[in-house]
């Protein structure tokens, strides 16, 4: 069928060439493209002796510094500068969480061989007591896991005191993994002392522990992160021999799937509900992913190939879309920060050029029409 653009105009040779040029340009402009804008990331290598665990919206990062002499110290990175937070008199320390004011939570090894949770705030490191700090909110409330008389439980450090909680049913092993600014807490617990009993993810809200359920009511299941909208990300045994990522929102647990392997980990989630993590494959390399626009996407498909990095795992994401990850390039591996560089736009803008192309074609045909009339 002849395109309408050509049938509406006279047929001199010059006009025919114009018509073909217009059609060729339209073909390029309207060629298939992604149905939505796709983020492209660039990668910035982090200091070689620093390994990140968390990133805030200012781009600060908390994690582990492998200090000179082989020591392991909690550390904070701000604008590329690394601050060694020390060990609080212990044998080692490492950071696990960071909030928007730059407060850091983590753990320190004691001379007795146990671990204590700590909070580094206003230039000072505070010993929170025996336990492992995992998450923190903007107020400096810290959650994690501590020992109990019968096993282990989640804990909340708030207003200078630590309280233990977090068992479902007759369970004896639990932990708290994340807390938002409203004080909602997520975590996991076994349902009984039976070693074969599954663990379930839970939400602690308004003084009540809510069982979030699972995908198949078997194996290991956990809620890992919660944002200020109350959205929750975690992982669940799907009953097919594989761990699947899940997204819980307004009382509904959605199965995000996996990459075919047995395990999947959740690194973090931002306030937009974007989730990053790493899934393994049956017989290939691990897949670092981001969940956004209702799909799990391999981060390597979103990294500008020119940067040369192969992303191997994703650890956390902030509201600006910056991702902390591990990557390899030229046989060397390092921690990196992925920054959003640009987007691939949707194709709809090409249609805005159509009126101009039609006018161009008609103006080029006008001299030929006048010559013919003469």
Describe the secondary structure blueprint for this structure.
Layout: H1 4-7, H2 13-29, E1 38-45, E2 50-55, E3 61-66, E4 72-78, E5 81-86, E6 92-98, E7 104-109, E8 115-121, E9 124-130, E10 132-136, E11 142-147, E12 152-158, E13 161-165, E14 174-179, E15 185-190, E16 199-205, E17 208-211, E18 222-226, E19 232-237, E20 243-249, E21 252-257, E22 264-269, E23 275-279, E24 287-292, E25 295-298, E26 310-317, E27 323-329, E28 332-344, H3 354-373
Antiparallel strand pairs: 1-28, 2-3, 3-4, 4-5, 6-7, 7-8, 8-9, 10-11, 11-12, 12-13, 14-15, 15-16, 16-17, 18-19, 19-20, 20-21, 22-23, 23-24, 24-25, 26-27, 27-28
Helix pairs in contact: 2-3
Concise synopsis of the structure shown:
It is built from 3 helices and 28 strands.
